[in-house]
């Protein structure tokens, strides 16, 4: 676990019987840990897009067998799902700008 966000999520889940949580509870706990880490790093993305991020992670969790993973593996998957969503959103914004500017 080299990513500090992965460690933060894993540490936020590990003390609890997180496999009994709903996907929304896991998602919210993960985001609080990620945002707490981002705030400690003074990152400008902390707290942004909260509702959208919860929906993204809930959708990810409902599509996989997350309860069979370790806390560390689940944490890695959640951070990866969030990063993938963020990158796809950024590309969509760029493509929309190209279309609106008439350069696309």
Walk me through what this model shows.
This protein is mostly helical and 104 residues long. It has one domain (4-101). 69% of the residues lie in helices and 0% in strands. The protein is built from four helices and no strands. It is elongated.
Query: Based on the structure, what is the oligomeric state of the protein chains?
Result: single chain
Low-pLDDT segments: 42-49
Average per-residue pLDDT, rounded, comes to 87
Helix content: 55-70%
How many distinct domains? 1
Number of strands: 0
- What class would the helix/strand composition place it in? mainly alpha
What portion of residues belong to β-strands? under 5%
* Main sheet characteristics: none
Termini separation comes to 40 Å
Please, how many helices? 4
Give the SSE string: HHHH
Rg, alpha carbons: 15 Å
The 3D shape can be described as elongated
Secondary structure layout:
Blueprint: H1 4-13, H2 23-40, H3 50-62, H4 71-101
Helix pairs in contact: 1-2, 1-4, 2-3, 3-4
Protein name: Transposase
Structure summarized in a few sentences:
With 104 residues, the protein is mostly helical. It is 69% helix and 0% strand. This is Transposase.
